[in-house]
Amino acid sequence: DSGVTQTPKHLITATGQRVTLRCSPRSGDLSVYWYQQSLDQGLQFLIQYYNGEERAKGNILERFSAQQFPDLHSELNLSSLELGDSALYFCASSASQNTEAFFGQGTRLTVV
Amino acid sequence: GQSLEQPSEVTAVEGAIVQINCTYQTSGFYGLSWYQQHDGGAPTFLSYNALDGLEETGRFSSFLSRSDSYGYLLLQELQMKDSASYFCAVRVGSNYQLIWGAGTKLIIKP
Q1: Which pLDDT score is estimated for A97?
Q2: Strands (E), B50-103
Q3: 8 Å CB contact between B92 and B29
Q4: pLDDT digits over B34-69, tens only?
Q5: If you measure CA to CA, which chain B residue comes closest to A41?
Q6: pLDDT tens, A59-72?
Q7: Does residue B69 contact residue B23 with C-beta atoms inside 8 Å?
């Protein structure tokens, strides 16, 4: 157990809908990262927050947004969902921006 | 663009040694990480090389040559539980942003 908690574990929704994925980082970790992993693919970096502020942005679609709250948990919002958004979404956290990141178990999103 | 190349699949025998190669082309380079991922599970950290040379951690070793933009993960005394996908990832920024390879599926036969 990495100490990073993601909810829900599974999510099935229809095209056009909006969902929110939640991540609780390890206790004390200030940095949160979001990744998308499509079937049999590597992980695509989406976005990083550090102590509530956005620090790096990857290939994140405009339909997606995220935030990190004062208690350091983070949410990833996915809107106007398309079939191609079906994937595993991982959250990772680290103590600072320069230390190793630990991953949660992921949320498997299925868009039908 | 930025890219990492690693074999899609490698097969080895239990008890043997296997090497998984990774070549990269990125706009920035701070170091090369290796992660293990079992089917449907979370990636788990194996190693990180910032400098040239070999790092050994138990049965696993990782090598980096910055001049060749190349690294490898060496797994010794293979066990069935080592069957998983292995990803190389380049740290491209001070904020630990990672660019990932597509992964190598390691199949171990008894």
Answers
A1: 66
A2: 53-57, 60-65, 70-75, 84-91, 98-100
A3: yes
A4: 999 998 889 998 999 999 999 998 999 999 999 999
A5: B102
A6: 899 999 999 999 99
A7: yes
Residue A58 clears pLDDT 80, i.e. is over it: yes
Quick: pLDDT tens for B9-39.
999 999 999 999 999 999 889 999 999 999 8
Distance to chain B for A18, nearest Cα, Å: 24
Picking from A49, A6, A33, the residue whose alpha carbon sits closest to that of residue A101 is A33
- Local structure of B71: helix, strand or coil: strand
Q: Mutate which of B96, B100, B104, B105 to test chain A, going by most A C-beta atoms within 10 A?
A: B96
Choose from A10, A103, A108, A110 for mutation: most chain B CBs within 10 A. A103
User: What pLDDT is attached to residue A98?
Assistant: 66
How many Cβ atoms sit within 10 Å of the Cβ of residue B34? 23
State how far the alpha carbon of A42 is from the alpha carbons of A35, A66, A89, B87, in Å: 10, 21, 12, 7
Q: Which of B97, B102, B103 sits opposite A48 (nearest CB)?
A: B97
* Minimum-distance CB partner of A56 among B45, B97, B101: B97
Q: Does B30 reach chain A within 8 Å, measured CB to CB? A: no
